[in-house]
Design a protein that fits this description.
The complex is a heterodimer of chains A (390) and B (240). Chain A has 15 helices and eight strands. Chain A has helices at 3-25, 71-75, 80-87, 95-110, 116-144, 149-169, 191-214, 217-223, 231-236, 242-245, 278-300, 354-359, 362-365, 371-381, 385-389, and strands at residues 31-35, 47-53, 56-63, 178-179, 182-183, 321-329, 332-340, 348-352. In chain A, helix 5 runs antiparallel to helix 6. Chain B is α/β, with parallel strands linked by helices. In chain B, strand 6 (148-150), helix 3 (159-170) and strand 7 form a beta-alpha-beta unit. In chain B, helix 1 crosses helix 2. Classes of the chains: A alpha+beta (390), B alpha/beta (240). Chains A and B meet through helix 1, helix 2, helix 9, strand 6 and strand 7 of A and strand 3 and helix 3 of B.
């Protein structure tokens, strides 16, 4: 792994030398291509500056900061229950999943555990937000490569999931439903049957996408072997989620971590792929969506009765201490390092978002690729701008 | 309310007094012993929460070396994140002061967290062993006068952006990192926003609406509005 630094440096020097030689011999100049800030491939406002030599990228770097909202500073002036409103907006496609690790960290510091029913509902909503998030990715993937149909399917089927989230929590995008000690409310009547029906639809959506996209020859030739991330590089950059598993690392925080959640009560599989290319990343996400629907189905039948809220004081003061909790969010490992001083609000919250790490590999990954592949690689890395800038 | 420390000294949460819970975490204890052994005198302090997590603190002058040892000899090969923390309580509190009244004096005694600390600011990093999935938080003190620490980009390429962010937000210099440009803020931005003595301006220019829930009625005299204010304040603290 120590080789990487050298290797990177060498390739950089080589590319610089190539650039210089090109300029001398052919009297040509490299070109700087600016992608974004507004570009459909960027899920928000990310700008990518790429220096080109012909059709090849010599050097590329994303410019972040168009959506920096300073949540780490803002958490310091809010009370613990107020923070969920902020963190909802980090990864806005899977909002509920953002609340969970923060609430778990606060609960850990307080020594509170949510009742079993609340844990089940939490896990189900967590997986639903994953499905809503990743189904959009699967549809969007087609658009990046010039296929229009999948995105319509994705928006149609994601709507079913959003409706479920809305009927349970009251918010389509920003549920703000998780509370320290449990949940705001119980599930509405008839929700479980409705969810079962939607999960069936989502499974057929996954089949459709697999037929439409993954079996498509153009899709395969545009993604296979493109943007390969080896295992050691993925670990060094702290990639997480499907990006890590597509590089052959068998690691899922839902399985490999003990948290007061109920993923272990369901029977499901962690998918990995040995290739580490764009295709692998997309494929792992597709399989994960299927697994998520399975998890939801199994948990729906096993929800125990009981309260959804533990006994917590009305004014929540979190005891002094430090806690780190991370969960396997739709985009990868999302974690909060919460420092409390026994006050109403946190002393410091470090938000470790998945996309920040996932996208920090792009300067390394984009070097040497062809221009059309930039979009493919970025799409397959899958990031949400709010999750990079926070 | 945090207890006051005499003489403004840096107080530490002692690591021994909090690990007396009956739960035994052999895996992490063995890990800690091994780390202690291989780091030698570079190792400063540790804190172990059985069944939860492990914190260690290393000496500033061998930050790079100790992280490299952790990676090479203890298989902490997954880079989680790098950030910093400013242990000085904010002189502005939670930004809920009434700007029309004189600012209250707050206790800004520095108290460090787990695994102790001697300085106001600390850099910390999260590493995970990708085989056993056990994680560790490594902290290092940074000098108050010229906060700087060695850069980790040679051993974890992913530290690059994290160090840039930390440099921007805390003003900590990473020696060996030659590209500490701002990630988020404009180039000419002054100050380091995540330092505790950097005020949150949104709360400074306008009073936080939580102070007064009900706007005083037009024509209401001074006493009435003061009463409304007081009751609103108590209501607010109840609701939160």
């Amino acid at each position: 792994m120590t080789m990487l630094g050298d290797r990177q440096q060498l390739s950089y020097i080589a590319s610089q030398a190539a650039d210089a030689r090109l300029n001398l011999e052919l009297e040509t100049e490299g070109m700087t291509l600016n992608i974004g800030p507004q570009h459909p491939a960027t899920h928000g406002t990310l700008r990518i500056i790429a220096r080109l030599d012909g059709e090849q990228v010599v050097w590329a770097e994303p410019a972040c900061g168009y959506m920096h909202r300073g949540y780490e500073k803002l958490t310091e002036v809010r009370t613990f229950p107020q923070v969920t409103t902020l963190v909802n907006r980090i990864d806005w496609l899977g909002s509920f999943a953002n609340e969970v690790p923060f609430i778990l960290a606060a609960e850990k510091l307080m020594g509170v555990e949510a009742p079993t029913r609340a844990q089940y509902i939490r896990t189900i909503l967590f997986e639903l937000s994953r499905i809503a998030n990743v189904s959009l990715f699967l549809g969007d993937l087609g658009v990046q490569l010039g296929a229009i149909t999948p995105v319509f399917l994705a928006f149609r089927d994601r709507e079913y999931v959003l409706n479920l989230i809305e009927s349970a929590t009251g918010g389509r995008f920003h549920p703000n439903f998780d509370r320290i000690g449990g949940l705001k409310d119980d599930l509405p009547a008839g929700w479980i049957d409705e969810t079962r029906a939607v999960m069936k639809k989502l499974r057929s959506f996954c089949d459709q996408i697999e037929d439409l996209l993954f079996g498509n020859e153009i899709f395969q030739s545009r993604t296979r072997g493109i943007g390969v991330i080896p295992r050691d590089v993925a670990l060094q950059y702290g990639l997480s989620g499907a990006n890590l598993r597509a590089s052959g690392v068998d690691w899922d925080l839902r399985r490999d971590q003990t948290l007061p959640m109920v993923w272990d009560k369901a029977d499901w599989k962690v998918w990995t792929h040995p290739d580490g290319d764009s295709f692998a990343r997309c494929w792992v996400r597709l399989q994960e969506t299927r697994e998520s629907t399975k998890i939801v189905d199994q948990l729906l039948g096993a929800i125990p009765s009981g309260p959804v809220m533990a006994k917590v004081p009305k004014i929540i003061k979190v005891p002094e201490g430090e806690a780190w909790v991370s969960t396997e969010n739709p985009l990868g490992e999302m974690g909060y390092y919460v420092v409390s001083r026994g006050d109403l609000g946190p002393f410091r919250v470090k938000i470790r978002s998945a996309s920040f790490n996932n996208i920090s590999i792009t300067p390394w990954l984009l070097r040497g690729v062809y221009v059309p592949d930039i979009v493919t690689i970025l799409a397959s890395l899958y990031f949400i701008l709010g999750d990079i800038d926070r | 309310m945090p207890p006051k420390s005499p003489n403004g000294e840096v107080r530490q949460l002692s690591s021994s007094s909090e690990t007396t819970t009956p739960v035994v975490d052999l895996e992490r204890e063995q890990m800690l012993e091994a780390i202690k052994l291989s780091l030698g005198d570079v190792f400063v302090d540790s804190h172990l929460k059985p069944g939860d997590d492990l914190w260690i603190r290393v000496r500033t002058d061998s930050w790079l070396g100790s992280v490299q040892k952790l990676r090479d000899h203890h298989s902490f090969d997954y880079f989680g994140f790098l950030s910093a923390i400013d242990w000085m309580p904010s002189p502005y509190g939670r930004g809920e002061d009434d700007p029309t009244e004189p600012a209250p004096v707050r206790d800004t005694t520095i108290r460090s967290g787990y695994a102790g600390g001697d300085t106001r600011m600390q850099v910390f990093i999260r590493l995970v062993n990708s085989k056993t999935h056990l994680g560790i938080t490594v902290k290092v003190d940074v000098a108050d006068s010229s906060p700087s620490v060695e850069s980790l980009i040679t051993i974890f390429a992913g530290a690059n952006w994290h160090e840039r962010e930390t440099h921007e937000m805390f003003g900590i210099d990473f020696v060996g990192h030659n590209d500490l440009r701002n990630m988020y803020l404009p180039v000419d931005f002054e100050g380091h926003p995540l330092r505790k003595d950097f005020p949150l301006l949104a709360r400074m220019v306008k009073p936080w609406p939580g102070i007064v829930d009900v706007e005083p009625l037009p024509g209401g005299d001074e006493e009435d509005s003061a009463e409304v204010k007081a009751s609103a304040q108590s209501k607010d603290s109840d609701a939160s």
